[in-house]
Design goal:
Elements (H helix, E strand, L loop, with lengths): L9 E2 L13 H4 L1 H14 L6 E2 L1 H13 L15 E8 L8 H9 L5 E2 L4 E2 L4 H7 L5 E9 L4 E9 L33 H5 L1 H13 L7 E2 L1 H16 L16 E8 L8 H9 L5 E2 L4 E2 L4 H7 L5 E9 L4 E9 L12
Parallel strand pairs: 1-3, 2-6, 8-12
Antiparallel strand pairs: 3-7, 4-5, 6-7, 9-13, 10-11, 12-13
Helix pairs in contact: 2-4, 7-9
The structure holds 2-acetamido-2-deoxy-beta-D-glucopyranose (3 copies).
């Protein structure tokens, strides 16, 4: 009998409580889902996997196929390893990408390394720790009026899953890391997300492109921005609809984005994001076609210095960046930024 049975499924059923519609990405939490996998692997000495956008797209595509029924059924394409879990959304801890991964980890006790056999369901666990798989990507969908979450993760390369191929080398497990109950992403100091030097450099490139003198970093302004960020974090202001200005004495740009393996939100990424408004600004008329106020703030020659702060939400997966500018530009119809 094969030990990696990709058709095995975990089902978690709890009572229906329903919950309000969250941002669907909160259901998946890719970075934390990956982290749970990698902690589980580290425990038996298997190297980490990386998040794969192609696999995630494959998984999401199949999740979309299942959007009508959320059936616990595998995709027919057998290119990849595949784990599925589903559960009712009762509270934050009911079902999500990381919760699904923790459920699969719960099968560990049924896997016997000596015999390479399962005494209960353990195929999801052996898939997680299979050293043949190096990449993972997951998708998700909600059913039953948004009260039921269905999660699928795909793995590549697909493990052999035969009687003779163990998922990992036991000897390495001696050097394993002890799995801690806290699965959250490591806390990052806000300044690590801000990246002051790079943020300043990106601003100054954008200014130089239109012949405006460079800004300098201003610690007073940065402390103001971080203080505002801390207040927002404490008040749990995490939804995009919560985005508000501090109403202080400075010009201000705010952006938010998810933790990702690449191009994760940060001070420099936020700045590049604001730069995308550049085509919306018409210097001749000093008007915006669409939104361009973040861009005109970056290039405003009335501002000489900036400082930024940041905070994280949703188990450290959503990053908010706040940049303040001194002096605050006039921003009236007659005053061009440069
Ligand atoms: C994976 O584990 C198998 C079984 O113990 C072992 O033979 C193989 O060398 C390992 N491969 C890697 C890449 O660690
Ligand atoms: C930094 O900002 C403060 C106002 O908050 C201002 O008084 C000071 O001159 C600024 N420093 C620089 C270098 O722009
Ligand atoms: C800023 O730009 C405006 C509009 O072009 C110009 O009139 C002004 O002299 C500039 N100020 C500085 C300090 O460069």
């Amino acid at each position: 009998m094969s030990f990696v049975i990709v058709s095995l499924l975990s089902i978690v059923l709890t009572q229906i409580y329903g919950r309000t519609n969250l941002d669907p990405r909160v259901d998946l939490l890719p970075a934390e889902t990956l982290l749970v996998h990698n902690r589980v692997r580290a425990e038996v000495g298997v190297g980490p996997m990386v998040w794969d956008f192609k696999l995630a797209a494959f998984a999401q595509n199949y999740a979309n196929v299942r959007s009508k029924d959320c059936a616990l059924q595998h995709s027919t394409d057998e290119m990849y390893g595949e784990n599925i879990a589903a559960g009712w959304l009762k509270s934050k801890e009911s079902m999500s990408g990381p919760i699904a991964a923790k459920l699969w980890y719960g099968e560990k006790k049924f896997y016997n390394y000596q015999t390479n056999k399962c005494s209960g369901m353990c195929g999801h666990y052996t898939q997680m720790v299979a050293n043949q798989s190096h990449r993972v990507g997951c998708g998700h969908v909600r059913c039953h009026a948004d009260t039921y979450l269905w999660v699928v993760c795909n793995y590549a390369p697909r493990p052999m899953g035969d009687e003779n191929t163990r998922p990992f080398v036991l000897a390495l497990a001696l050097f394993s890391v002890i799995l801690t109950p806290a699965y959250g992403l490591p806390k990052v100091k806000p300044i690590d997300d801000v990246q002051p030097e790079q943020t300043l450099a990106v601003h100054n490139e954008i200014r130089a492109a239109v012949g405006v003198a460079p800004l300098v970093w201003n610690e007073t302004v940065a402390a103001y921005a971080q203080n505002f960020a801390n207040k927002l974090a404490k008040a749990g202001k995490c939804a995009y609809t919560d985005m508000r200005h501090s109403g202080g004495p400075y010009g201000e740009n705010i952006a938010a984005g998810w933790v990702q393996p690449e191009d994760q939100m940060s001070g420099p990424i936020a700045t590049k994001y604001w730069l995308t408004e550049k085509p919306n600004y018409d210097h001749a008329t000093n008007k915006c076609k669409d939104v361009c106020g973040h861009y005109t703030q970056i290039v405003a020659n009335q501002s000489f210095s900036l400082g930024c702060g940041s905070y994280r939400c949703h188990d450290n997966e959503l990053i908010w960046i706040v940049c303040d500018y001194y002096p605050m530009p006039m921003g009236d119809a007659n005053t061009r930024p440069y």
